[in-house]
Amino acid sequence: MAGGNAIRGSRVGAGPMGEAERGEAAPRKRVSFWCANKHETRPSFADDAPIPDLWDCPRCGFPAGRQSEAPPNAPRNEPYKTHLAYVKERRSDEDGAAILAEALARVRQRRGE
Ligand SMILES: [Zn+2]
């Protein structure tokens, strides 16, 4: 939790064997991304590769952005979505029931005449 700064330096240059060789062949740069949980991840990119605006945090899966002080919002909208879907579903059910009742009333009227 509070070890973010300690972790920061320890992994630099400590990649698996062969990484250094590839690094020499194609120069790479490390770019820092921060997620809403303040996890810093530093993927490396080829020098000529475009840097994406968002990166998935490997620790929590949240989207991470380039600005540590303004990380992208955590995807916490699922309960809201579910609620909205529920409301929509209910509303359409009520609409459906009203339409059905109307139709039935019309059928009954016709039958009665
Ligand atoms: Zn994270």
Q: Outline of this structure?
A:
This protein is of the alpha+beta class and 113 residues long. Helix content is 43%, strand content 15%. The protein has three helices and six strands; from the N terminus they run ααββββββα.
Describe this structure in words.
The protein is α+β, with helices and mostly antiparallel strands and 113 residues long. The protein is built from three helices and six strands; from the N terminus they run H-H-E-E-E-E-E-E-H. Strands 3-2-6-5 form a four-stranded antiparallel sheet, with no helix packed on it. A two-stranded antiparallel sheet has the order 1-4. The radius of gyration is 27 Å and the shape is rod-shaped. The mean pLDDT is 78. Zinc ion is lined by residues 35, 37, 39, 57, 59-60, 62.
What general form does the structure show? rod-shaped
The first-to-last residue Cα distance is: 76 Å
Q: How many extended strands?
A: 6
Helical segment count:
3
Helical proportion?
40-55%
Main features:
113 residues; two-stranded antiparallel ribbon; binds zinc ion; 4-stranded antiparallel β-sheet; 6 strands; 3 helices; alpha+beta
Note the topology.
Blueprint: H1 4-10, H2 19-25, E1 28-30, E2 33-35, E3 40-41, E4 44-46, E5 54-56, E6 63-65, H3 78-112
Antiparallel strand pairs: 1-4, 2-3, 2-6, 5-6
This protein binds zinc ion.
